[in-house]
Specification:
mainly beta, 1 helix, 4-stranded mixed β-sheet, 151 residues, elongated, 5-stranded antiparallel β-sheet
Amino acid sequence: MDNTYAPTENKEQEKIKVESIDTIVTMHGDKPYYENKYREVGDKGYHIGYSSYYLDVALEYRKKYFEVVERESDWIPCSERIPEEPKENPVFDGKCLEVYLVTTKYGSSDQDKVYPFRAFWNGINFTDGWRILDVIAWMPLPEPYRKEQHE
C-alpha cells in the first residue's frame, strides 16, 4: 500500500493558482519519490508537496489541484488578490509595513493616465505616505542590485 500524503477531498476547494509547476524526482533508498514543486501566483519562493512514490499519482495531483496561470507580467490585479498581512518591519521602526510597486489610475475614464510607483502596504490600504491610494495592481519589489552578481 502507498503511504503517500494524499490531500483531503474538498469539492468546493478552488485549484491552487500557480505560475509554474515541476515534478521532480528524488531517491528514497532505492525507490523514486515524485514531488510537485510549484510557485503560487505572486510568491517569490517555491513550495514542494502533493507527492507520491508513483509518478502517475503525482501527475494526477497536478491536474486535480493546480491551475497554471500564464502571466504577461508580474503585476497582480487587486481584484485577484491583495498582499498578505505585513509583519513588523525593522526598516520602518517596527511598524507593520511592506513596500510594493503599485499601479494606480487617476480619473474615471479609460483615457486617464496610469502611473506605476512605490507604495506602502499596511494590511488594509496602500499609501504613498500622505494619502490612501486607489491601487489597481501591485507586485513585490525586485531583489536589490548586487554588483557581485554582475561581474
